[in-house]
Amino acid sequence: MDDLLSEFLTETSEGLSTLDVEIVKLEQNPNDADLLGNIFRLMHTIKGTCGFLGLPRLESVAHAGENILGKVRDGELVVTGPIVSLILECLDQIRDILNALEATEAEPEGDDSELISRLNAAAEGNMADAPAEAAAPAAAPAEAAPAAAEPEAEAEEEFVPTPASETGNMNVMAEEPQAEAVAEEPAAEAAPEPVAETPAPAAPEAPAAAPPAPAAAAKKPAGNQEVAKESSVANQSIRVNVDLLENLMTMVSELVLTRNQTLQILRGQKDSEFAAPLQRLNHVVSELQEGVMKTRMQPIGNAWAKLPRIIRDLSLELDKKIDLVMKGAETELDRQVLELIKDPLTHMVRNSADHGLEMPEDRIKVGKPETGKVLLNAFHEGGHIIIEIVDDGRGLASAKIKEKVLANGLATEAELESMSEQQIQQFIFKAGFSTAAAVTSVSGRGVGMDVVRTNIEKIGGTVELKSVEGKGTTFTIKIPLTLAIVSALIVACGRERFAIPQLSVVELVRASGNSEHSIERINDTPVLRLRNRLLPLVNLRELLKLPPQEAEGPVGSESDEASETAEHAEMADAESKSPEDTTGLIKNDNFIVVAQVGTYSFGIIVDRVFDTEEIVVKPVAPILRDIQLFSGNTILGDGAVVMILDPNGIAAATGEIAVSGSAAEGAAERHAGNNAETVAMLVFRAADEAPKAVPLGLVARLEEIDLASVENSGGQRVVQYRGALMPLVQMDGKELKSEGRQPVLVFSDRDRTMGLVVDEIVDIVEDRMNIELGTEKQGCIGSAIIDDKATDIIDASFYLQQAFSDWFAGGERGDGAEEGGSKILVVDDSPFFRNLLAPLLSVAGYEVTTVESAAEALELCEAGKVFDVIVSDIEMPGMSGFEFAETVKNNTRWANVPLVALSSFASPNDLARGREVGFTDYVSKNDRDALLHTLKDTLAEVRGAA
Amino acid sequence: MSEQMEVSTSASVAQTDEYITFVIAGQLFGVPVLKVQDVLSPQQITPIPLAPPEIAGSLNLRGRIVTAIDVRLRLGLNGRDEGDEGMSIVVEHDSELYSLMVDSVGEVLQLKASHFERNPPTLDQKFREYSDGIYRLDDKLLVVLDVTRLLDYGREVAA
């Protein structure tokens, strides 16, 4: 392409995007002479260059645009919505022609006379006739020049009604009926509305437009100043080809590497005369590197330039009032990253305006300001750029998402039930998911957030979502500052070294046979227990089809210059030369790099882990591009080439990425989400070496008592605790030592407390209980495997009774008497809870029957058994508690029996759902007191009713 | 020399072309000298897992990453014997550098177009695919290697 032409194209398209922004600003701030002057200049430049290059069509359109702007500048015309729309339309037309010009290097054929006549008419102060006249000729050129005419035809549809609605927006006292009528008959009705004849009749319009203007001006002073600043900066800058910069960057990277090598050599020599100059070189190179890096940085505002225009068009199209606030536009990031996030950002802002914000009427109804707000905020945070997109709209409706999830079969009802609100909201990132009830031209086409997420993750970023229904939605995007230089962890597998971007590395775990962590296998699939979670493992050696362990020299030894990294390698190698399992692919001693991709964590098994290193990412040769596991390659400080592993690719190659909680939710919550049945257990040691556990929910407090303060009272050891005497019980009944400190588990019930003396509190473990029953031991419910060890689950009630023989007999018995042995049916699939509840309830004076499934309970119902209360678990295999309740309430003879739901997991959603299907009450599994109270209340109610 | 350099490498229209010659498995080959950036002695090469077997790996050539291709394997011949390290010719293709691993590198020859001939149709399919034609030298035949086709993996996948 002609150099002149290509320069013209870049310059003009740049000018156009500035114009887009400035004109929208002008609309909000019509009296700003500087702004207007700037706009006029830009348009004039475009026109002038067109004439110079011999582009008559472009010139005539630009001329008409300049004409109208000139009138505005000279004060002959007042800036109004319709005029702005018309100017923007003119810009669109110019852009279309430019696009064609870029593609074909020649001006496309076409007829702009319609647009030009409208522009001229408007410039004459005569908006009225233009559209009417235009209607006819618009059809004719449509065939002649499809490229040009099509957007025009579109523009026709989009823009003709806008004068009406636009006026509605500008005018504070918008009249709806009028606006509608206008939409029906655009040409005729639009006529009297906006810019009537020049100076004099424009006057009535002016006051209407004026009020919003000062407000906008007051809000935007910062913006204006910025513009001024930017343009002065623009004067001091020169245009440089990007390739040149890229080249510079490469050279500098090379220089850095060479410097590193030189410094390496220097380190080996004492008292070299090169030391001082090399130090100097070192500093200069570092500064040079920083400087060149900076040339690639651009303010994020460049990616936002289109947004004000988009939002404005949207607000007209959707008839919403939208205020776009942009903060931190000066935040800089790498050009390459900027390009990549432009589209996702635009999409998300559009989404927020379209889906997020409600219609003005709806906003007023819920007491929000009529004008919706979309806030874009960018800032630096720890080597990352954070971009927030906040709207104060309706938020995400979990109920709708759930419906959609079910309809699309993305999850089952039971799965949804156990998910937190946040987890449910994450579904909007799944492919083919849109909750917009209607597809608008703007969004809701079912492509969207999944693409956004994929694009952001591609550049190593993350998206998080927070939404409160009715309050609004916040998206937080976190992206690396630059893609060119990243911090990477260097690992080795076999003879090869690889780099893993530090961004996706969460932690490193060393797994060996005799350490705390060891690799276990399920049908040959390696997994690792990490903080009570199973971490899927990927063996890098297998994944990359590297040869097995044997016959290997130390990594890096082939390098002639023994660099630091190579030395590391040898050291690590020597260290790991423990007996290696040459038969299997995984040896005993492994390093596991825990990586996170989105919300999916997995471990990568590697042989060795070296340092982290700043690396310059270079794309791989095209012939290697289809290997998904590598995101690039790089040259390390010692000059060796290594491949950069792509955690996304590894995740995609080894397992699918599941929807789970957002990364910030942490492991614990995710764990709870996936395994609703888990119970927090307090693990401790007492009496003997065997670990013991008690459900954490039963323990009131953990204390440490001074044994010297233990007293004797009534044959019992007691200690003064919170102004009262607390009896102490020991599991083995042995005497306490007379001094020292000892941990105590405090159980409490109403005004009584009891301390169980233990030797050591080991841990709190959240785990699914696998109770192995049948213990004969007193005070023990059974044993379970907790944290890989057989653990006795102690029966708290046994020890409570030891402390107070009347613990349950006292208060409860009194109540129980009046309840007269009410019959309770406990439905719970977990043997642990059946065995915990049964004694508890029978001690409290109830007659308890336990069954392990809903089906079994229904059999009892069929058999004609009668119960006063049914206590049912929610999460059960087969029929869930909800389904059970529904069945019971609908058509069995138990329809009138109160149902109490019991779950280890009670969210407000569950509560609502529970009540809906007929549960009288909802109790958390670990809350013994609440259960007893609820039972009492429920029974009292039933009695009262009867 | 420089005027002749501008002649296209497709060889059919040229009067004289300069070629760098090299030997693979006893056969003399040539590539247009204009395509060649460098001739290398054996280098430290990082193998690339999962890559096709003829891709020997990548190496660092003055700060640029070069992909090394074992031409023997690419031509469907046996791999080099252990210990025989060979040499490499670095060529540029689509603004990427590739190092072609060959047995030994010879000299630069000026060859006349009149000595050029199309591939005999009976030639091995891989040779036919990657070769432009043959030059008749006095004592032997030189196969002109078409670097573009040799490195065009995309076309192969599409085919």
From TrEMBL, chain A:
Residue ranges, compositional bias (Low complexity): 127-150, 188-200
Annotated region (Disordered), positions in chain: 127-233, 549-582
Organism superkingdom: Bacteria
Keyword Transferase appears in the UniProt entry: yes
Biased composition (Pro residues): 201-214
Residues with the Phosphohistidine modification: H44
Biological role: Involved in the transmission of sensory signals from the chemoreceptors to the flagellar motors. CheA is autophosphorylated; it can transfer its phosphate group to either CheB or CheY.
UniProt-recorded name of the protein: Chemotaxis protein CheA
Species, as recorded: Denitrobaculum tricleocarpae
Taxonomic placement: Bacteria, Pseudomonadati, Pseudomonadota, Alphaproteobacteria, Rhodospirillales
From TrEMBL, chain B:
Domain spans labelled CheW-like: 16-156
One biological process term in Gene Ontology: signal transduction
Upper classification of the organism: Bacteria, Pseudomonadati, Pseudomonadota, Alphaproteobacteria, Rhodospirillales
Domain of life: Bacteria
Pfam families in the record: CheW
Protein name according to UniProt: Chemotaxis protein CheW
Source organism of the structure: Denitrobaculum tricleocarpae
GO CC annotation: cytosol
Signal peptide: none
